[in-house]
Design a protein that fits this description.
Blueprint: E1 2-9, E2 18-25, E3 28-33, E4 43-46, E5 51-54, E6 56-61, H1 100-106, E7 109-114, E8 122-130, E9 140-150, H2 153-160, H3 169-191, H4 199-202, H5 205-208, E10 214-218, H6 221-234, E11 238-242, H7 250-256, E12 260-262, H8 280-287, E13 292-294, H9 306-315, H10 320-326, H11 329-334, E14 352-355, E15 366-371, E16 374-378
Parallel strand pairs: 1-4, 1-5, 6-7, 9-10, 10-11, 11-12, 12-13
Antiparallel strand pairs: 1-2, 2-3, 5-14, 7-8, 8-9, 14-15, 15-16
Length: 381
């Protein structure tokens, strides 16, 4: 057992932090109350004067797939040979030995949504994993966790410049619609017992059962609107990833009911469609009623700067508690893992980070990171 004593605990179940103890047993939060007495079998962390949070979550990344090395062989994020590749699985390309996992843990990031890049109109299956482990199978929380679709410059550049489809935004939307139409036909026929199993269609099962969403790479307002339009046509879940120009149509996004994963605002504006990238976007969306998470889009910007991105969003108008939600409980809800992660609550996974100061202060450091009840990082070790 592990006992965290006397920390100022931000449970994220309420907006008011409390000084209390947290008892962890068998990888789960077992008890939250004051003055818990340790036994001889209990390891104790004295968190007096420190701040305790649920482990931080990056809701969109390519960690372990696009590795932080110079060799071209370590970027496995795009199968750039055909525009529709829904059967690709992130778990088959994630390398837990990527040094970025160590950086994530040292920054208090305990959970990540990882998947293919945005070269393809339909890119494959994301997975939600913990950041600690040497075998990806032991790190999985949810897989598949989403189906990646992408709009805008990336698919057009990857294929259109070679004389292939898609070369236009209309072409991207058409490819996605056709594939979803065929998938819907497949599952409708299955209900009638008139179709054989298809590997190419089975990857959509959780999507059409409502268990996972489409995960849409969208920057411009028109691409955001097209993604919403297609998701509603087929009655599917959707997350609006990047959502760079979302602040320009915040009310329309709120009306859609779909959440936004905003970022990487720390990255440079290297493409036309990210010309309006700004840290104010997340706050404007959240104030309009949109559920918001933040992303570094690692390695576009480095994953350890997720708390910094949240701090800069606060600087540009986002509510401070709202920014904490965007990297904890709201990120967990958007990724559909909030039954296990995102807050400090009895019964949830014991993923906890302890800071020696507020994580939005640049001088603050992680004192300890706990994943599945195990101390995986400690400042003095």
């Amino acid at each position: 057992m592990l006992l965290i004593k006397k920390g100022l605990v931000y449970t994220m179940e309420t907006s008011v932090p409390v000084i209390t103890d947290i008892l962890i047993k068998d990888g789960k939060i077992f008890k939250i109350e004051e003055n818990i007495k340790p036994t001889n079998e209990t390891d104790v962390i004295d968190a007096s004067g420190m701040l305790v949070f649920p482990g931080f979550i990056d809701a969109h990344s390519h960690i372990g797939i696009a590795e932080e090395k110079k060799s071209g062989q370590v970027d496995q994020s795009n199968e750039g040979t055909e525009p529709v590749t829904p059967c690709l699985r992130a778990i088959d390309a994630i390398n837990p030995m990527d040094s970025a996992f160590h950086n994530a843990i040292a920054a208090g990031i305990t959970g990540v949504m990882v998947g293919p890049g945005s070269s393809n109109a339909i890119g494959g299956q994301f997975a939600f994993i913990k950041t600690d482990g040497r075998c990806v199978d032991d790190m999985i929380v949810l897989a598949p966790a989403a189906i990646k679709i992408a709009f805008g410059e990336n698919p057009m550049t990857n294929y259109g410049t070679n004389g292939n489809m898609p070369s236009t935004r209309m072409g991207i939307a058409s490819l996605i619609r056709e594939e979803l139409f065929l998938a819907k036909q497949y599952f409708d026929a299955e209900k009638n017992g008139t179709i054989q199993k298809s590997f190419g269609m089975e990857c959509y099962r959780e999507l059409f059962e409502g268990k996972i969403p489409l995960k849409a790479h969208v920057h411009r307002t028109d691409d955001i609107s097209t993604a919403v339009r297609i998701a509603k046509e087929f009655g599917l879940g959707l997350t609006l990833d990047h959502c760079t120009e979302g602040h320009l149509i915040a009310e329309k996004i709120a009306e859609s009911g779909f959440p936004a994963i905003v970022g990487p605002s720390l990255a440079s504006r290297t493409k036309d469609e990210v010309a309006l990238s700004d840290f104010k976007t997340a706050g404007i969306l959240q104030k309009a009623g949109v559920t918001v998470a933040l992303t570094t889009d690692h390695p576009v910007s480095r994953i350890q700067y997720l708390p910094l991105c949240a701090a800069l969003a606060v600087k540009e108008g986002m509510d401070e508690f709202g920014a904490l939600r965007a990297i904890t409980i709201d990120a967990a809800r958007i990724c559909r893992v909030d039954d296990r992660l995102g807050s400090i609550k009895v019964g949830k996974d014991a993923d906890v980070v302890i800071f020696d100061g507020h994580p939005f202060e640049i001088s603050s450091s992680v004192f300890a990171t706990v994943i599945n009840g195990k101390i995986v990082w400690k400042k003095d070790k």
